[in-house]
Amino acid sequence: MKYIKILPLCCKPYIDIADISFDLQLFAGEKTEDPTAKRMSDAQQKGQTAKSQDLSASIVILIGFFSLWGYGSYMYDEISHFMAKVFTSFPTSIDVEFVWQLVLSVVIVLAKSLLPIMFAVLLAGLALNYYQVGFIFTMEPLSFNLNRLNPITGMGRIFSKRSLMELFKSLAKILIVGYFVYLYIIDQVIQMPKIIFMDLQMALVTITDVIFRLAFEICAVLLVLGTIDFMFQKWQHKQDLKMSKQDIKDEFKQSEGDPQIKGKIKQKQKQMSMQRMMQEVPHADVIVTNPTHFAVALKYEQGMTAPVIVAKGQDLVAKRIKEIAREAKVVIVENKPLARALYLSTEIGDVVPQELYKAVAEVLAYVYRLKHKKLA
Predict the structure, then answer these.
(1) How far is CA 182 from CA 193, 213, 304, in A?
(2) What is the b/e burial string over 81-92, where b = at least 16 CB atoms within 10 angstroms of the residue's CB?
(3) What residue numbers bound the domain in which 320 lies?
């Protein structure tokens, strides 16, 4: 590789453009290509997917508050009725049976109050995770890896570019959410002293309304941030999986096989097929030739519906077929139209086409008469 020429300071420095050249091998490993479907699938099986925890958390919290908001009055009624019943009918003496009945009643009331909300949150979490990554079952992320215990590698992950980005995102999220919470509290703080003059039930309703409005506002902000984060995670995931041109070539070799090896295998298979074909030539009844361009070997035995093509070839292969036929003393018949028609319309192992029956029958009759004369 040539470099830029620079003269000493006493002379006027110059750059010879003709001497500038680029070593393109420096760019061979650059990750410039989009990931292939196989690379995406392999990464997915390893648990490497584009997923936003912020989006999942925001929607799960939002569903939880919606469920609590719609189901809260029923929960309040169930718990208040239960507590009123317990305290009004509390026995003077407590025994083991009463304690067991009380515990069972508490469990039933809590189940009726909390299970619908927990079930709604569970369904929301599962649906959102399925939307982001699909259905994947893999144990590879849980497999034991000694590299995870390496403190140097761990420090590298802590101070990596991705970790700094996550830190920046967390700080930005805290600041944005804190700003909206501040605005809401400033707007509602004037209403707080009025709670002192309300009865208990009205005060609870007012506080609950304030809390739920604040929660929904925070969830809305988190939902927007989570959507942006999900789009960023998809982009970042694609960037992480980008491939170089050499990576794509290597993957193609692994999935499809090395073209050179495949070519050698095909060549070997062709040679073996050719050998098997040539081994059938001595057993043929007749060789129909062009005479120089085509050669087709026919064989007919008792019980066959029609003669069978046992070998065929063109040019050098045809020449080799005729050489083997002469050594085996197989009759060679020159018939240009028939040889060409048989070569073009049949494959090895096929029977003679019906439209060629008459022409082939005449050739075989000639061969049988020839053999009969020799025997006589």
Answers:
(1) 18, 13, 96
(2) ebeeeeeeeeee
(3) 278-373
Helix (H) / strand (E) element for 334: namely strand 331-334
Q: Where on the phi/psi map is residue 302: left (φ > 0), alpha (ψ -120 to 50), or beta? A: beta
Residue pair 356/298 in contact by the 8 Å Cβ criterion: no
Query: Does residue 290 share a domain with residue 158?
Result: no
Q: Are residues 66 and 177 in the same domain?
A: yes
Beta bridge mates, 331: 286
List the strands of the sheet with 286-289, edge to edge.
Answer: 308-314, 294-299, 286-289, 331-334
State how far the Cα of 295 lies from the Cα of 322, in Å rounded to an integer.
Answer: 7
Mark residue 329 as left, alpha or beta (left: phi above 0; alpha: psi -120 to 50; beta: remaining).
left
pTM of the model: 0.45
Contact at 8 Å (CB) between 210 and 188?
A: yes
Position 86 in a domain:
yes
Same domain (yes/no): 294, 356: yes
pLDDT averaged per 10 residues in sequence order, the chain, 376 residues: 42 44 49 74 70 80 82 81 80 78 86 85 83 68 63 65 77 85 79 75 79 83 85 81 76 65 74 82 86 85 84 86 86 86 86 86 84 66
The pair phi, psi for residue 287, each rounded to 5°, is -115, 120
Question: Residue 33 carries which DSSP code?
Answer: B
Q: Which residue, among 208, 276, 168, has the nearest Cα to 70 in the 3D structure?
A: 208
Element (H, E) at 224: helix 200-240
The total of structural domains in the chain comes to 2
Cα-based distances in Å from 202 to 19, 25, 184, 188, 351: 87, 76, 21, 17, 98
d(CA 203, CA 142): 50
Q: Is residue 94 part of a domain?
A: yes
Q: What is the CATH number of the domain that holds 348?
A: 3.40.1690.10
Q: What is the CA radius of gyration of the chain?
A: 43
Cβ atoms within 10 Å of 306's Cβ, excluding its own: 15
Note whether residue 70 is domain-resident. yes
CA distance 14 to 204: 84
